[in-house]
Design a protein that fits this description.
Blueprint: H1 3-18, E1 31-37, E2 42-51, E3 60-69, H2 72-85, H3 90-106, H4 126-143, E4 150-151
Helix pairs in contact: 1-2, 2-4, 3-4
């Protein structure tokens, strides 16, 4: 990866950490899930409002927000996640998570430049993969209406 691209990606992460998008409790949420990363203390709650699709169509994420505390990676990832998942169906959200997971575990980003690629460098720090995926696990639990806390200890990140 070129130095310019690495710098751009670092700026994306720093920007989402300093000025998180969609942070705070969503008063209209009809799904909520909490995530915990016991290895470093990161906490993330995800609030989303699913709107029913037209007959025969899947529900969509109409609104999504997060709240929590933790390292810059976990907070920036949760912020970016909310911008990426809004308007998506559950299947689309799961597909996006799988693409993100592949990026943070392999360090290989798709050819097209996407903000998710900013987390490609995380693969070099295996303990940080759990930080980067925490909010995503909570969001997937919220989509499944699973009240059990998402914990990075139960995932193979």
């Amino acid at each position: 990866m070129s130095a310019d691209l690495t710098e751009l990606y670092q700026q994306v992460i720093l920007d989402h950490n300093r000025r998180p998008r969609n942070r705070g409790k969503l008063p209209t949420a009809n799904r909520v899930a909490h995530g915990d990363n016991p290895s470093c203390g990161d906490q993330c709650s995800v609030f989303l409002r699913l709107d029913p699709g037209a007959p025969g169509q899947p529900d969509r994420i109409a609104e999504i927000s997060f709240d929590g505390s933790g390292c810059a990676i976990s907070q920036a990832s949760a912020s970016l996640m909310t911008t990426q998942l809004k308007g998506k169906t559950t299947a689309e959200a799961e597909k996006l998570y799988n693409e993100f997971h592949a990026i943070v575990t392999s360090g290989h980003a798709p050819e097209e430049i996407s903000d998710l690629a900013a987390f490609a460098g995380v693969h070099a720090f295996p303990a940080r993969i759990k930080c980067a995926t925490l909010g995503w696990h909570a969001a997937l639990n919220a989509l499944k209406n699973d009240a059990a806390p998402a914990t990075t200890e139960s995932h193979t990140d």
